[in-house]
Write a structure and sequence with these properties.
The chain has 175 residues and is of the alpha+beta class. The chain is extended and about 55 Å long. It is built from four helices and four strands. The protein has a domain of 96 residues. A hairpin with a 5-residue loop joins strand 2 and strand 3.
Length: 175
């Protein structure tokens, strides 16, 4: 006896078989040996042994130094020093773009864009003096105080990340 199923039932059955097949395939991959031929269980055991060999860090101690990006950025720098550091970063970012264009209007446009990027950090300085700022309406509202020589500048990187630099008496103290 042949039972005719509706189109929706056929699709649902086909989908459930596909999901079941995917789950079984993932389970088989998880149980198979790694590319180098060693089972994953042995690799996990070796990783646990490596962790056991390291002495635990003491409270309040770091195992590695905290590194700020880009290289050369450090606390205590002035806004102008940070701007010069980012000038170098932007110049390095633009080298591949300059290699692709020939002299002319496109190169002039690249020059203008580079100069604009270099000036953004210098132009974005906000002093938290007596007058309230629009920053009070952002998530950064609790990160600064007024009337104590504090200022902030910000820059948006090529990756889309926005970095906010906070200064006391023009010395970087928070990023």
């Amino acid at each position: 006896m042949i039972i005719k199923a509706s189109r929706a039932t056929q699709l649902a059955t086909l989908l459930s078989v596909a999901v079941l097949g995917t789950c079984l395939a993932q389970d088989a991959v998880a149980k198979s040996p790694s590319v180098l031929g060693a089972p994953k269980a042995k690799a996990k055991a070796a990783a646990k042994d490596a962790k056991k060999k390291e002495p635990p860090a003491k409270p309040g101690e770091l195992r590695k130094k905290i590194r700020l990006s880009p290289k050369g950025l450090r606390f205590g720098m002035s806004n102008e020093q940070i701007a010069k550091l980012y000038d170098k970063v932007f110049e390095q970012e633009f080298v591949p773009l300059y290699k692709r264009v020939s002299p002319g209007p496109r190169m002039a446009a690249l020059d203008a864009e580079l100069e604009n990027k270099k000036g953004r950090l210098r132009r974005s300085v906000i002093d938290f003096g007596k007058t309230a700022t629009g920053i009070d309406e952002t998530p950064l509202a609790g990160e600064y105080t007024y009337q104590n020589k504090e200022s902030m500048s910000r820059i948006t990187l090529r990756s889309g990340t926005t970095r906010h630099f906070f200064f006391f008496s023009n010395r970087l103290w928070k990023i």
